[in-house]
Specification:
Blueprint lengths: L2 H8 L4 E4 L2 E4 L2 H17 L2 H17 L2 E4 L2 H8 L9 E5 L4 H14 L6 E5 H6 L4 H14 L4 E11 L2 H6 L1 H17 L4 E5 L11 H22 L7 E5 L10 H13 L9 E4 L22 H15 L4 E3 L10 H6 L4 E4 L1 H9 L5 H14 L10 H8 L8 H5 L3 H21 L6 H7 L28
Parallel strand pairs: 3-6, 4-5, 4-11, 5-6, 6-7, 7-8, 8-9, 9-10, 10-11
Antiparallel strand pairs: 1-2
Helix pairs in contact: 2-3, 2-7, 3-7, 5-7, 5-18, 9-10, 10-11, 11-12
């Protein structure tokens, strides 16, 4: 029995395959077998992984669950096609991606939300040990499990050019980002955030020259996206003018970037949103006791630059990064100031790591691993609490299987806590009842993948040290 036959048998023949397609014979039975299918897609041998991921993709297509681009929704917002305020949450699921995505879909369906994004950054792909096809499989399998229907927005976050490596070997670094982009689009990531803001050079005279390397390389990578996107799909592309954790962005920088970027596109479709810096940092600022310092976001910057992006360039607006660790009172302000999208990550990771359902023995093993493998990242003034909080993300990949193998009751409890958190964020960000609006502006197309002919090839390991996350 080959891998595909074995998987179909494990699904109790609730799914049939014919002519390179899958059809669902018994959805109720299928749902009872999906936990095992995604486990094989993540942890199975090469041939089984390939077959499981193909099945998940094709089952989703058959049920009308389609990876999609949010490009048209953002452009509609930019031209004022609708005036209802909301900010799209873009959620980085670093841990327990399948259980976390299930929680997202449950929350979304309870309030008829449609405008939400699943994403993972170039750096996160490395330290969480989740290549794009695995991540997309977890999201789509979760959608099938929870009975979701409609467009699913999956995004490559911070597909970032490393400034140091670019200075040493620019072609190699650009090719690395292109290669990841190709892999991601093939996996259903029809939303790509290009981050060449690391190349901004504030030592150069004038804002335009400071932004030059940024807009030229962003345009170059945007052209690659247009070459790689499937027929009928306009991948949503994002640009960035201010590196998260740096100085706050200005209107002058936005205009310099956009004017240079548009001039370099050669008439191709460009970005639909622009990420800016307003005072946040990835993961928050960790105090000596391991708690987080209050962060002062300049919401006026977010509002002003978002208005320029829409009024002068037709974009959906400005994007806020590094926001999940903000106080709860802050999230409604993103809607008030017109932010088109907000990126959320670390708080979900923290919830999982610190959930009471996680055995103390596993927590201790994670800490021991950090003290053996991550001490080179410890600052001289870091307390133990600061060190563990800032570095434990690096243990996600090595302990991925251990967390996936937690008892079902523990994963259910974690999932319920995540669902409550997603529900709070969805309500604060105003995405209740956006499913209809998404349906009006987004037309996901049916895309089929070739039947696997053998085992998956292991992706080449990539050093991602120094990249934003």
């Amino acid at each position: 029995m080959n891998a595909m036959e074995a998987l179909l048998q494990s699904l109790q023949h609730s799914v049939e395959t014919s002519d390179g397609r899958a059809s669902v014979r018994d959805e109720a039975t299928l749902k009872t077998r999906l936990d095992g299918l995604i486990y094989e897609a993540v942890f199975g041998d090469g041939e089984t992984q390939a077959a499981a991921r193909w099945l998940i993709w094709e089952i989703a297509q058959a049920l009308g669950i389609r990876p999609a681009s949010i490009h048209e929704l953002y452009l509609a917002r930019g031209r004022g096609a609708f005036d209802r305020p909301f900010t799209v949450p873009a959620m980085n699921l670093r841990m327990l991606a399948y259980d976390s995505a299930r929680a997202v879909f449950r929350a979304a369906q309870m309030i008829d939300a449609g405008a939400f994004i699943f994403e993972i950054a170039r750096s996160e792909i490395g330290y969480t040990d989740q290549r794009p096809a695995e991540y997309a499989s977890a999201v789509l399998d979760a959608a099938i499990k929870e009975g979701f229907r409609g467009p699913v927005f999956i995004q490559g976050d911070h597909f970032q050019v490393n400034a140091k490596r670019f200075a040493e070997t620019p072609d190699a670094e650009m090719n690395a980002v292109r290669g990841l982009t190709q892999e991601a689009i093939a996996a259903g990531f029809y939303n790509i955030d290009i981050d060449t803001s690391t190349l901004v050079d504030l030592s150069r005279p004038g804002t335009y020259e400071q932004q030059r390397a940024n807009f030229e390389r962003c345009a170059e990578l945007s052209r690659s996206v247009r070459e790689l996107q499937p027929p009928g799909v306009t991948v949503s592309v994002g640009g960035e003018i201010g590196e998260v954790g740096g100085k706050n962005s200005t209107e002058e920088e936005l205009r310099a970037f956009m004017d240079g970027y548009n001039a370099g596109l050669g008439g191709l479709t460009g970005i639909s949103k622009i990420s800016i810096q307003t005072g946040t940092s990835h993961g928050g600022v960790v105090l000596p006791d391991g708690t987080l310092a209050d962060v002062a976001i300049d919401f006026d910057v977010l509002k002003r630059l978002g208005e320029v992006a829409r009024r002068e360039y037709g974009l959906g607006g400005a994007v806020q990064h590094g926001a999940s660790t903000l106080p709860e009172s802050a999230f409604g302000k993103f809607v008030e100031c017109g932010a088109v999208e907000v990126h959320l990550a670390t708080a979900f990771q923290t919830l999982v790591f610190e959930h009471p359902s996680v055995p103390q023995q596993l927590r201790d093993e994670v800490k021991d691993w950090l003290y053996r493998n991550a001490m080179n990242e410890r600052k001289s003034k870091d307390t133990d609490e600061q060190f563990v909080y800032k570095t434990r993300k690096k243990a996600i990949g090595p302990f991925k299987r251990a967390f996936w193998n937690l008892p079902e009751s523990a994963r259910m409890s974690i999932g319920m806590a995540l669902e409550a958190r997603f529900m709070f964020l969805f309500e604060q960000l105003g995405v209740r009842d956006t499913a209809r609006l998404v349906a009006e502006h987004v037309r996901p197309i049916e895309v089929h993948q070739a039947l696997p002919t053998g085992a998956l090839k292991a992706a080449k390991a990539e050093s991602v040290e120094g990249l934003a996350d």
